[in-house]
Amino acid sequence: MDRPLSRDREAARTAAGEDLARLLHHADTSVLLELLANPALDETQLCLLLERKNLASEILEEVARRKPLTKNYRVKKALAFHPRSPRLVGIRLLRDLYLMDLVQLTFLPAISVELKMRAEEQLLARLPQLPLGQKITLARRGPARLAGSLVAEGHPHLLALALDNPRLTEAQILKALARENIPAAVPRAIAHHRKWSESYHVRLALVRHPFSPLASVLSYLPQLTVSDLRELAAPGIVPEALRKYLQAEVARRIRRNKKSEFAAELPPPSSRE
Known about the structure:
Layout: H1 3-14, H2 17-23, H3 29-35, H4 43-50, H5 57-65, H6 73-81, H7 87-94, H8 99-106, H9 113-126, H10 132-141, H11 144-153, H12 159-163, H13 170-178, H14 185-191, H15 200-208, H16 214-220, H17 226-232, H18 240-265, H19 269-272
Helix pairs in contact: 1-3, 4-6, 6-7, 7-9, 8-9, 10-11, 11-13, 13-15, 17-18
């Protein structure tokens, strides 16, 4: 066995002060594992160790296994946020994270997609019990799924904030509009929103929704394709009164196209003289 490495392992169990601080940066995994058993290793030093992005997952798993080490919240957070944290360790720690730390985790590029999705599910599960102040913060800065859920909730203090959330996506808007029994304020707010009312697919969803303002819906019809207009005009898709407007728009397009075709077939004026 390499004598310097052997000495470092022995020292790791009892080191203190500057010697302990030096060992926090040791390159050998076996030395760091011995360091975890050192009673002088405090929360601050352990968090410094966990800041090392190149730590072996073996060390992270050992930290998670030692309950005395994970009693501290800072250590739990450092473990959950570490890009090499084992999958099951990260999932287990999600339920212990504070609300805004869960939100922060969903934005970290090095965190796996699965862990981010599970963090969002934790947030969605907590949503009904949250006070209005925290919901306002989430409406402004939360991830897309959370913002979409708050849009669908239709709370007067949250709806406009959630619609303006820069992380909100068209997919979440469409999911909100597809939910059953959403408040009438939701499609109305979307129809009047400067960004979402310009989206073609959102407009289609608004035309289908019974609570959408008629004036907005009628203003969308000239921009919809004939095939979409025909599909929406099929029986049972929209109320009968709106269906008549759709059919009229289809008929208007057909007449216009026929006029254009007829004009194209006419010889130029000079040849008709």
